[in-house]
Amino acid sequence: MNKTIAVFGCGWLGLPLAKSLQPEGFKINGSTTSFEKKALLKENNISPFLVDLNADDYINKIDIFLKNAEILIINIPPRMKTGDSSSYFEKMEVLYKRTKLSTVRKIIFVSSTSVYGNITGDVTEKTTPKPVTESAKQLLDTEHLFLNDSTLKSTIIRFGGLIGNGRHPINHLIKKEEISNGNHPVNLIHITDCIRIIKLIISKEYWGEIFNAVYPNHPSKETYYTTIAKKRGFKKPLFANNNKKYGKKIISENLISVKFFDFNTSI
Question: Rounded to whole angstroms, how far apart are CA atoms 47 and 28?
């Protein structure tokens, strides 16, 4: 059996994920856009590949990166800015086409709960996405690109807000004069559980599926961030008067109710 996994995007999530897959017997190809980071990947026994989707020679670099891999984990967020004319979907479409020409036949695409847009109430994998932002629309289009190809075994993970390893929304929110929608539920997930979910999909062969991935505790934003600010010694964040609209609560139904996955790390 081919034991090579290509991790496309060895950043905040991709690098610790790649490191955690090695004890399972996998050889890891890791991509980065930073020449300096190649050395870090090599230090961690990850075969480093410089792949920049904005570079002129990126198609050739993709082909080399995917060589001999059986599984591809795509962990490249859109990061689109207002007025950005570049197309995330078009770049993912090129990656998709090169993947079909490679040895890869199993794919995990890291998406986001942002594809559900402004839907309110409980949201499961059965809820029809209604993306609002351009980046969320292109994420959903990319999901369909891989899922609709029966020659590939593709699984989509829609992560909620990512926390852990120095990353937390409170670091941004405390800089705001006022925070809106304090009555809305939080939808967060710790990096430790992100990695556990990806490894579960690989080990159990959960292909051709969609997973919401959010910790199953959903306090209100005001309750949660006020508590976190106090724990970290930050000033109490100021929330605007709550509106009556409830917001959305992301339910990880497929993981919890179908696969019986237990989230380990609280938010």
Answer: 6
The C-alpha atoms of residue 125 and residue 253 are separated, in whole angstroms, by: 7
Distance CA 16, CA 156 (A): 20
Three-class DSSP category at 253:
helix
- Residue 164 has a pLDDT of 96
What distances in angstroms separate CA 248 from CA 186, 209, 221, 251, one per listed residue?
9, 22, 12, 9
Maximum CA extent, the chain? 58
Phi then psi for residue 73, to 5 deg, are -110, 115
The helix, strand and coil proportions of the chain, stated in percent and rounded to the nearest 5, come to 35, 20, 45
Buried b (16+ CB within 10 A) or exposed e, 131-147: beeebbbbbbbbbebbb
pTM higher than 0.85 for the full model?
yes
**For 190-211, what is each residue's pLDDT tens digit?**
999 999 999 999 999 999 999 9
CB 62 within 8 Å of CB 98: yes
Q: Is the dihedral of CA 116, 10, 26, 142 positive or negative?
A: positive
Q: Which residues pair with 163 in a beta bridge?
A: 190
CA separation for the pair 250, 156 (Å, rounded): 15
Cβ partners under 8 Å of residue 165, min gap 6:
12, 16, 191
Neighbours of 41 (CB within 10 A): 25
From the list 17, 188, 241, the residue with the least C-alpha distance to 108 is 17
> Between the CA atoms of 44, 37, 66 and 158, what dihedral angle is there, to the nearest 10 degrees?
90
Task: Give the whole-angstrom CA distance, residue 89 versus residue 138.
Answer: 5
